[in-house]
Amino acid sequence: MNKLFKKIAAVVVAASTAVVGLTGCVAGEGSAASAENGEALSVIKLDYAYWNPLSLVIKDQGWAEEEFAKQGATVEWVLSAGSSKALENLNAEAIDVASSAGSAAFAARANGATLKTIGVFSQPNWATTVVPKGSDITSVAALKGKKIAAASGTDPYFFLLRSLSDAGLSTADVEIVNLIHADGQKALESGDVDAWAGLDPLTATSERTAGSVILSSKPEYNSWGVLSVNEKFLAAHAAELEIVLSLYEKARTWIAENQDAAVAILARDASLDEGDARKVLLERTKVDVSIIPGAEQKSVLEAITPVLVAEGKIKSQEAADNALASIYDTAIAEKVAK
Q: Does one domain contain both 82 and 171?
């Protein structure tokens, strides 16, 4: 499964970018002019991820290429191996729209990134705490003094922090080994660690092939799958972003009407057993949700904020409060919402 994921950055602390005035024409009227230099966008860089099934459908169906050809633009697809990598690429302007966990985008903004979350792609149950087959660990409290693999700056990592806090523990009570998701899976199955902050679809595969067991699963602790952009790009290219969010709504409807085909796309692209793909997409991922970010997503972030501040993953409570108050821009999502 190593081929599913590349090296994930440890923690996203993005550099600030300047905010420019909001411009752009309505989607369908032709290319939007850049607020910076008056030039039309010639290429839009979109990410896709095995944990973002809507992105896989859009890519597979060729809808983005079709729509942006009308605007005189081409599409470049970039794989996001995890939230940290997606936000790192967004900060570097290697992509224009980033898929990530809501918690990762929130932490990035609180720590200085000028990103905005503009849409929601899913309500997943993708993050869990996993132990190997035959483990005598039966509760999160029993992880005290144990070695846990986790990819820092990702939803499984934040899920682990919150689960530890619920059990009266902190990172000082365990040994966290910072490993990318695929390497964390390998470490668990080889016995190098006692537990793993797992991420689907890897978790589903590990359950089937290695007998791994989910120790802790709380869907309400997962921070939703969201789409974020740099403020500068949002100001300059609202029209193009309206097209992107419209395609996400189209993919949402398509999956509901073509579940078997959607499962097949996920299985093919992520090199998954079809049964694992079906479990991940149809049992652990809810895509029939509103694209408009708001109170539901914010409530999850509010709940995890004290832990992130206490663990130093957000620089201060003030920074967290400011990020919570400013991270969402719902204007485009409200226009395209079905």
A: no
Listed residue (103, 137, 22) closest to 314, CA to CA: 103
**Lookup: tokens for 209:** 């092939």
Give the containing element (helix H, strand E) for 107: helix 102-110
Q: Which domain holds residue 133?
A: 127-221
Number of domains in the chain: 2
The H or E element that residue 67 is part of is helix 63-69
Render pLDDT for 171-221 as a digit per residue (tens, 0 to 9): 999 999 999 888 999 999 999 999 999 998 899 999 999 999 999 999 888
Residue of 272, 285, 260, 136 whose CA lies nearest to 204? 272
Compute the distance between CA of residue 19 and CA of residue 30 in angstroms, rounded to an integer.
24
Shared domain for 315 and 195, answered yes or no, is: no
306 Cβ contact list (under 8 Å, min separation 6): none
- Phi/psi-derived region of residue 203, left when phi > 0, alpha when psi is between -120 and 50, beta in every other case: alpha
Q: Looking at the structure, tell me whether residues 134 and 198 fall in a common domain.
A: yes
